[in-house]
Amino acid sequence: MTKLSEQQYQVVAKSVSDKKALPGALLPILHDIQDQLGYIPKAAIDIIAAGLNQTAAEIYGVISFYHHFRLDKPGNHLVEICRAEACQAMGSEALEQEIKSKLGIDYHQTTKDNNVSLEPVYCLGNCACGPSIKVGERVYGRMSGEKFSRLMDKLSTYVVELGQGENHAR
């Protein structure tokens, strides 16, 4: 297991220290860590478990139960595909297959260049304009394979201009 960097350790330790007295502290701690780091490093599980007097298995069980939590560093861009009924009725299943094929990944995976992570989502609140996807904080309606390709071209250029080290998935 990879060790935490000093910065990661400080984020995890402070989150546990600040929130361990809260009722049901685990979820606020996990959200805080993921909000700050973009994911929950596997090496953080033992620190969280010790701080809450729980086992690592208990912590891992909660993380793996909720699809929102990630144990691996996400790509520069988080792409979420709506899988709700309204979007499915508008062709999101075909779009989903096309996007997976274009990216060469499945849900809960990241492209080899670390540019894109792909996640399912179960309603983006954009039902009248389905099928919809969300990239970062922006929702795109009436998405097609062609529109997605153009969007990915723009995002690749955006990452190159900003530099690869920045995380735009949050």
Please summarize what this structure is:
With 170 residues, this protein is α+β, with helices and mostly antiparallel strands.
Strand content: 5-15%
Q: Which structural category fits the helices and strands?
A: alpha+beta
The count of β-strands is: 5
* Spatial arrangement of strands, main beta sheet: 2-3-1-4-5
What does this structure look like?
With 170 residues, the protein is an alpha+beta fold. It has two domains: 6-65, no CATH class; 77-162, 3-Layer(aba) Sandwich (Glutaredoxin). Helices cover 47% and strands 12% of the residues. It contains seven helices and five strands; from the N terminus they run H-H-H-H-E-H-H-E-E-E-E-H. It has a five-stranded mixed beta sheet with strand order 2-3-1-4-5, with helices on one face. Strand 4 (133-135) and strand 5 form a beta hairpin.
Question: Which helices and strands, and how do they pair?
Answer:
Elements: H1 6-19, H2 26-37, H3 44-52, H4 56-65, E1 77-82, H5 85-89, H6 92-103, E2 109-110, E3 116-121, E4 133-135, E5 138-140, H7 145-162
Parallel strand pairs: 1-3
Antiparallel strand pairs: 1-4, 2-3, 4-5
Q: Characteristics of this structure?
A:
single chain; 170 residues; alpha+beta; Glutaredoxin; 2 domains; 5-stranded mixed β-sheet; 7 helices; disordered C terminus
